[in-house]
C-alpha cells in the first residue's frame, strides 16, 4: 500500500517509529564503538603488563625459554628478541616461530602498539605491544592479544537489538494511540459536516474543551457555517423577493394580453402597447438592476479614472427629468478616482430615490471634508437631502437591504423596487467609500464619502 493512501495516524506512527528506530540504531552503534574502544584500551594495558613482566625477567637476567608461567588472567603470546633480532624466548604457543612484528618504540621508555595480521599469530589479527629493555643492548619484548570484535560483548549487542525493537514498537503504538485520541475531535467535526445539508444549516460542529489547534479549527468552521447560513438565507430571500417583483409586471402583461385576446375587435394596438409598455419597462429595470448586483457581488474589475464629482453630478442632473425643485451646492475641483459609469449610476439612484420621497425640494451638495474625524484625512463628500417624511433611525440600515420598502410611500406606484439604494451602497463600497443616512431637520439625508486620490509620493 502506498504511503499517501495511509491514514494520518498511520503515517505519523510510521514516521515516529522510523525516527526512533534510527536514533536507537545510531545510539547502539555509538555505544558499541565506545565500548569497543574502552575494551581495546584495557586490553592494550593488559598486554603491556604482560610484556613488562617478561621485561622484568630480562632485566634481572633470569630469562628462560619457554617463558616462565604467567598468571592465568595474563596468559598472552610473548616473544623476547635480543639486540641481534633473534627470538631468544617465547611462550609455549610461539616456540620456533619468527618475530611476530617488526616495529619498535621510539625510545626505551615508551611503548608502541599496532594491529598485526600474519601467520605467526594464528586466529586472525592481534594487538601487538612492543617494549624495550636495556641489558648489554636493546632487547625488545613483543606481547600480543587477539583484537576484539566490534560488538565486544554479544550479550550487550543482544540487549541493544532487543531494546531497539521493543522501544520502537512501543513508541509506534504510543504515537498511534496519542494521534488517534488527538484526532477524535476531528472525526467528530467531519461526521457533523457530513450530516449538514442545505435544509439544516443551523447545525454546528462540536468544539473540544482543550483550547488547542483543533479548538481553533472548530471555531473557524462554525464561524464559516454562520456566514454560509447568512449568505444562503440572503439568497433565498433575494430569490423570493425577485420572483415576487418579477411576477407583478408579468401578471399585468398577461392579464392585458388575455383581455385583448378575448375581444380583439375592441382593442386598439397602440392602446395595448401603451398599457403593456410600463410593465415591460419595469421588467427591464429589474433585470438591469439584478445584473448590476450580480457584477458587484462578483467583484468585477473596472477602469479607474479621475472624475470631477461636481461635474458628474451636474451631468446627471441635466440628463434627469426633474419632478422636484433641486438646489445645487457643488464645490468645483473635488476629484475622485473610479469608474465614471458606476459613479453616475450611484448619483442617479440617490436622485431618483429623493425625487420619489421629497415633498418639494431636493438639495445636492459636493465638497471636500475631513470626514468623521480630523484623523481620518480628507474625503470627497456628496450629500442628497430631500424634504420628505424622512427615515427613522432604527430603519436606516434596513433600506439598504435588497427589495426593501419601508411604507406605502415606497410602493410600486412610486416606481421603486428596493434595489436602487443597495446598488448605490455597493458602488460606494467598491470605490473604498461609504454610503450612510445621517440626521437632518427634515427628510432623509444620504451622505456618500469617497477617498481622494493620494498625491504622488504620498
TrEMBL record:
Q: What InterPro entries does the entry give?
A: HAMP_dom, HATPase_C_sf, HATPase_dom, His_kinase_dom, HisK_dim/P_dom, HisK_dim/P_sf, Sig_transdc_His_kin-like_C, TCS_sensor_his_kinase
Superkingdom of origin: Bacteria
Q: What is its EC number?
A: 2.7.13.3
Instruction: Output the SUPFAM superfamilies linked to this UniProt entry.
Output: ATPase domain of HSP90 chaperone/DNA topoisomerase II/histidine kinase, HAMP domain-like, Homodimeric domain of signal transducing histidine kinase
Positions of the Histidine kinase domain: 241-454
Q: Does the keyword rRNA-binding apply?
A: no
Q: Where in the cell is it found?
A: Cell membrane
Entry keywords, A to Z: Kinase, Membrane, Phosphoprotein, Transferase, Transmembrane, Transmembrane helix, Two-component regulatory system
Q: Where is the HAMP domain?
A: 180-233
Q: Which reaction does it catalyse?
A: ATP + protein L-histidine = ADP + protein N-phospho-L-histidine
Task: Please name the Pfam families in this protein's record.
Answer: HAMP, HATPase_c, HisKA
GO cellular component annotations, sorted alphabetically? plasma membrane
Spans traversing the lipid bilayer: 12-35, 151-175
PROSITE patterns according to UniProt = HAMP, HIS_KIN
Alphabetically, the GO molecular function entries are: phosphorelay sensor kinase activity
Name the record gives this protein: histidine kinase
The species this protein belongs to is Planotetraspora thailandica
Highest lineage ranks of the organism?
A: Bacteria, Bacillati, Actinomycetota, Actinomycetes, Streptosporangiales
